[in-house]
Amino acid sequence: MTQQHPGYDSLPDIADVLVVGAGPSGAAIAKAFADARMSVVCLEQGDWPDYSTARSDQPEFEVAAGKAWSPLPNVRRGVGDYPIDETEADISALMWNGVGGSVMLYAGQWMRNMPSDFRVRSLDGVADDWPFTYEDLVPFYAQAERDFAVAGLHGDPAVPASSTYPMLAAPIGEAGRRVAAGHNRLGWHWWPGSNAIATRTYGNLKPCVQRGTCIWGCIDGAKSTPDITHWPDLVASGVHLVARAAVARVETDARGRATGVVFVDAAGVERRQRARLVVLAANGVGTPRILLMSATAQHPNGLANSSGLVGKRLMMHPYAAVVGTFDDPIGTTQGAYGQLIYSLQFYETDVSRGFVRGAKWNLMPTGGPIAMMRPFPWGDSSGLWGEGFHDTVRARLNHSVTWGITCEDLPEERNQVVLSDTQVDDYGLPAAKIVYETSENSRRMLEFQAARAQESLLAAGASSVSVAPQVRETGWHLLGTTMMGEDPATSVVNGYGIAHDMPNLVIADGSTWPTSAGMNPTATVAAMALRTADHLIAHRSVQEVSA
Amino acid sequence: MSISSVWTDREREVLGAVADLLIPASGEMPSATAVGVVSEGIDEIAAIRPDLLDAGRQAVELIGADRPDSVPAVQAVLSGLFGPVSELLASAYFLRPEVARLIGYRSRRAIPLDDESSRRDQLEQLVEPVRVRGNVWRRTEGP
Description:
Chain A is an alpha/beta fold. Helix content of chain A is 23%, strand content 18%. Chain A has 13 helices and 18 strands.
């Protein structure tokens, strides 16, 4: 561990702001409030990351990563992990419960949403428009890109112009060059990867050394995660960050204002933290879980749930992967893992394809020898073992590259987070249960995108291509379960994440997204948290709080 | 329990037979047991991944006295355990130093980034055709 836990007696009796969750949105909003000289307490159910378990520079790295750095809380079973019942879900919810949040597991891919992502109803006649526009977020994207240390190349004509990356993109490697050349021949879009990975010394971050282990713990201190970029400085400036503090419920007064939360500390002792403003930043599963666990006689369906939508409209971005194998080495046992290059060629809607919306592609190295054996992304392994083993390893290792494809997931109320009625966590609190079925629109999109990605890799010179099987462990992005909107009858929070039912309860994570876009969400989650903080700070003199 | 006593002799024997079916010798590449996968390698893995230790032991129980003699037979008898058992044995194989030398991969090493100025020049040259093709995103009107 890198930090000591504060004593509980040092916490303010009533904080100006109480943040639940120390991931990117919690960190971003805590920083904004702290910069405005407001007292901030953050409760995080997990612990500080222990990079000594990552072994990223050791020979056993790949096999060790399968447990300690698994994205599945049910496998990892670390401090702060609550069980998730997935018996009725196509896709597993992936997350990291600890200081830094689930970006501890991200590859660092940093993409703004597109303007069309905010206008889905108006443009494509499906789902809902967002209550604000891309343009509203632009200044906050810029700030987030500085705060989260994004490296990229300016001038991509496939996205609105900006010039706010503080660092130059990492090298795209031989694999990136080949696929880029293939796209240039096809006339398809590509661009050097934009990643929240430092390419030079930047704040608390060190330059990337291309070890290619980003999602299993960056021991080199180059990947931008809040345990490095935000929390050490915030704690030093007086923000109270309490790890191993599992929130059981939000409490309210007789007028229906939030008064604070009840949490269970590292010793299993139930404690109470009061606050004028309560911010939930516990991800698209954790946030609705807390709201549903907070049900009382006054709020029998959970807090902020007069619309009945808390937990509903879960979106997880169905994911496809297509791998290409080349006859000669292309340097893909490691590299700048975030994304070497990306493509938005098939991002926008073209109804002639048989579906609406689209997907973003990211090119990634395939890794070391153990990764050449696994069912994902290689599919059926029946011919791998035995006589063909060594030839297969030789053909794949350092000769293959993968397009990862993030498909926009449209919201459906049947896809949801509920409380489990059969499982509890270590504190006796109800586990989460997710119910999720991949939609027909998503299935058509996956099929189309995978077919085009095969064409891409063949154009790049791949001697063979294959589509990875659909696997459960792809729910990286947990969105939509406390939808934002203008109408309290059809949404949980307003465009600033403020609960319609409770003016001092704010949701700052991706739960609030009306639609999922097809991008990696951290850039927009962080920008929205900054925009919410900006609004709340500007209106603090009229903020309604518990008496 | 010390690492050296994690596996019984019978478990090593059965897993060794399975390992050589999955990873036989071929050309310059040695078989699994020839490089110590079951005499040492699976001990290293068990220390790192207790779940794979459990899978290996369950596999030995499932196999019993009726040893499979082909890869399909192993897959049939192990069924859902085949994934973790093959990961146990392949991981142990790739961690052997002589195998790492033969395949040219031992661990992830630090590769410092190249010079920023030359990288920028290279990237700008590569993206020039993309810039020329121009906008592919849908413009929207404001709120």
